[in-house]
Structures are given as structure tokens and as C-alpha cells.
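Field log, afternoon session.

UNIT: design team B
ACTIVITY: writing a sequence onto a fixed backbone
BACKBONE:
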């Protein structure tokens, strides 16, 4: 376990679900909050870039708690995505202006996060209670209306469902309790996320500036670095929960697949990275030679749960990325070949289906032969 247990509340993704109810920043940051809250409107009226350019350059001195820092990172993250992609994929901004770039990079440095919207922002830190019954809603939305909020909330519910599993990972409770992990919330995607809107709108605002043909050289953060910076967009590949399960259950990935997942870890909060690292052990090697059928079955049921999730996810990606891309091509979408640049590649520039199937197959390979009951 990470040695610094004072990290604990920040350490566990699911804990953030219960603790990060910060929805306001000190008044000094009103301008950031106003822009982030009105993002969709400002993008649709194509005025966001003008508004951002006129924004004063704020200092970070009035941000005190970790929660305030995280909320500010989320706010500047959505503003940055809106600024870069306001005009669509065809005309991304090449330079992030100083009044946004400087506080955003300083804040990112403070938090140990990259200066781009990450999963830990847009999902883990982007929710608030809607009513006393525990219903939730997003704090900031990107364009895409209910599809956007639905996508964020479904991902958040997956994190919440993963919570008890993470709890087991960090305790000495017998492993078979992990098989109680239920990732059923992912099925809500189809009810709340419209494939066409996801594909044509939301996906663009989550795109980054690494391996992205629309911003091949990256983005210049004015007065931070003269050289453009390359950063991947937001992806649930940055979910620390799923990587925690892989680590604990010893699901091994290789070559480019492992490299991509490792790169996604760099977009997670440092305490989450440390947790994943500390869980990577030899549980499977311990179970393998053991002849206890219950233990083997419990282990396999965990792997099967992960496998089911990944199979479901592959079908979802086909429905939300590949099918709409095909329709757009058939209908002679005005974006032509250029706008489709993201279709066969994920947010990280990976070949989507090949990558996801390899991850799934590696999960399957972790299954172990169960000994006969004694
Ligand atoms: C409309 C719904 C979704 C779509 C279209 C989608 C799309 C993708 C794509 C294209 C990738 C490839 C890597 C990348 O481009 O970054 C990916 C990876 C991944 N996604 Fe999703 N995703 C969806 C929902 C979710 C949800 C709700 C979760 C749960 C938190 C999730 C978890 C993951 C994980 C963990 C990976 C890394 C590969 C793995 O470990 O299996 N995705 N997703």
C-alpha cells in the first residue's frame, strides 16, 4: 500500500464520489465558473474564444483545499477543450492564450495532472447532488446535451459500482468478495447516450492533441513553452478502477497495448498511479499452484466479470464509433475524410478495435484451469 495514508481520501476513485461535493470556487474565480457553466452556449454562439481572450489572468492564491484545486482544474479543462475545438475539427486553435494557459499549467503542476481535461476531471470530479434522494447531475457539460451528461454519469456510475471492488483490493478481505463487483451500470449507456450526437459532437470535445491528425504538432501553451505540447484526450482508459483490477488480478498486457495503458496512467492522479503500482503483484502465481477449487473459481469469476465488461464495451464502441462513422461516410458528410480522422483511432490515437480486442483477449488468458472438487 502507498506509505502515505494521509492520501487515503484522494487515493480511491470511489471515495471521491462521496467526498468531492465541491461545486463552488471562491468569488475571485467567478469568471472561470461563469464561462465553464455557460460553455455550451458560448460554443454554439461561437463566442467562447473571444470571451476567453478577454478574461483576466487570475492567480492561484485563493485556491486552498484539494477539492477547490480539483474543481478549478475541471473548470479550466472544459474551457480549454471548448477553446480548442469551438470551430470543430477543421479549425482547432493552435495556441492556448496566456491568461488561460499560465494558471492552467501552474494548477496542473500543483496537482500532478496534465494540462488537459482528464477522466479524473470530467467524470470523477464533475458531479453534484441534484436532490436529497441522492440523484446526481453533472457540474459542467460539454456540447451534446443529455448525451454528454448521460455519458459522464454512466461512467461515474461504473466507478461507483467499482468502489466495493477497490475497497477489497486495498484490504485483506478474501479475494472472492471482488466477484460481487457488478459493472451493470455500463448498460445505461444505450439508454442515455445517442450514438450520432456522441460521434458527431461530444467525441470532438474530448479529443486531445497527440496522435491527432487535426492537431498533428500539438498545442502551444502561450508563455509556458514555445514548442507545442502533445497530450492525449480524455478517455475512460484513464479510469484507475479498471487498471486496479487488472493489476490485482494479474491481467498482463504487452507491447503497444501495455504502452498505451501505461501512458493512460500518466493522466491519472498520482495517488491512483501509486495504488495501481502497489497492487501489481503475484496473486495469480499464488493461486495457480494451489489446489483449492473455491479459490480458483473465485478468481475466475472476477476475471469473467472483467471479461463481460470488456465484451460489452467492445460492442458499445462499435455502436458509438464505427457505425456512425460508416453512416457519415455513406451520407457524404461534409467533413469528408479529414473530419473522420478520429474514426478508426481512439482518443489516444490507438487503432480502436484491434486495441480493445487485444485487451479483452489478454483478460481471457488470465483464466486458470480449475482443479476438480476434492
Ligand atoms: C459510448 C460509450 C463509450 C465509448 C464510445 C467508448 C470508447 C472507447 C474507446 C474508443 C477506447 C479506446 C481507447 C481510447 O481511445 O482512449 C476506450 C477504452 C476504454 N474504455 Fe471506453 N467507451 C465508452 C464507455 C466506457 C465506459 C462507461 C467505461 C467505464 C468506465 C469505459 C472504460 C474504458 C476502458 C477501461 C478503456 C481502456 C481499455 C480497457 O481497459 O478495456 N468506456 N473506450
Amino acid at each position: 500500500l502507498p506509505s502515505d495514508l494521509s492520501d487515503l481520501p484522494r487515493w480511491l476513485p470511489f471515495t471521491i464520489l462521496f467526498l468531492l461535493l465541491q461545486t463552488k470556487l471562491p468569488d475571485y474565480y467567478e469568471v472561470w465558473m461563469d464561462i465553464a457553466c455557460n460553455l455550451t452556449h458560448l460554443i454554439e454562439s461561437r463566442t467562447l474564444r473571444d470571451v476567453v481572450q478577454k478574461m483576466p489572468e487570475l492567480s492561484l492564491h485563493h485556491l486552498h483545499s484539494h477539492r477547490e484545486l480539483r474543481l478549478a482544474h475541471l473548470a479550466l479543462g472544459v474551457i480549454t477543450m471548448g477553446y480548442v475545438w469551438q470551430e470543430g475539427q477543421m479549425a482547432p486553435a493552435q495556441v492556448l492564450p496566456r491568461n488561460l494557459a499560465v494558471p492552467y499549467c501552474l494548477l496542473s503542476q500543483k496537482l500532478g495532472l496534465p494540462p488537459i481535461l482528464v477522466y479524473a476531471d470530467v467524470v470523477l470530479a464533475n458531479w453534484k447532488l441534484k436532490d436529497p434522494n441522492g440523484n446526481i447531475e453533472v457540474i459542467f457539460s460539454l456540447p451534446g446535451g443529455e448525451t454528454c451528461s448521460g455519458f459522464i454519469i454512466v461512467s461515474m456510475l461504473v466507478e461507483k459500482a467499482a468502489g466495493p471492488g477497490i475497497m477489497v483490493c486495498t484490504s485483506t478481505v478474501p479475494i472472492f468478495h471482488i466477484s460481487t463487483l457488478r459493472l451493470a451500470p455500463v448498460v445505461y449507456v444505450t439508454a442515455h447516450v445517442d450514438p450520432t450526437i456522441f460521434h458527431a459532437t461530444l467525441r470532438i470535445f474530448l479529443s486531445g492533441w497527440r496522435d491527432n491528425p487535426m492537431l498533428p504538432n500539438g498545442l502551444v501553451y502561450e508563455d509556458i513553452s514555445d514548442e507545442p505540447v502533445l497530450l492525449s484526450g480524455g478517455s475512460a482508459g484513464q479510469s484507475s478502477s479498471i487498471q486496479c483490477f487488472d493489476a490485482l488480478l494479474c491481467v498482463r498486457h504487452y507491447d503497444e497495448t501495455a504502452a498505451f495503458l501505461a501512458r493512460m496512467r500518466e493522466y491519472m492522479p498520482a495517488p491512483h498511479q501509486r495504488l495501481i503500482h502497489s497492487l501489481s503483484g503475484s496473486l495469480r502465481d499464488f493461486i495457480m499452484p494451489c489446489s483449492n477449487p473455491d479459490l480458483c473459481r473465485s478468481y475466475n469469476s472476477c476475471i469473467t466479470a472483467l471479461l463481460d465488461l470488456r465484451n460489452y464495451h467492445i460492442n458499445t464502441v462499435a455502436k458509438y464509433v464505427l457505425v456512425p462513422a460508416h453512416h457519415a461516410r455513406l451520407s457524404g458528410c461534409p467533413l469528408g475524410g479529414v473530419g473522420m480522422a478520429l474514426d478508426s483511432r481512439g482518443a489516444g490515437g490507438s487503432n480502436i478495435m484491434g486495441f480493445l480486442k487485444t485487451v479483452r483477449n489478454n483478460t481471457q488468458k488470465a483464466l486458470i484451469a480449475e482443479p476438480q472438487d476434492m
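LOG NOTE: Residues 151, 154-155, 158, 186, 189, 193, 198, 235-237, 239, 242, 310, 313, 316-317, 320-321, 346-348, 350, 352, 355-356, 359 surround protoporphyrin IX containing FE (CB under 6 Å).
NEXT ACTIVITY: expression trials, pending approval
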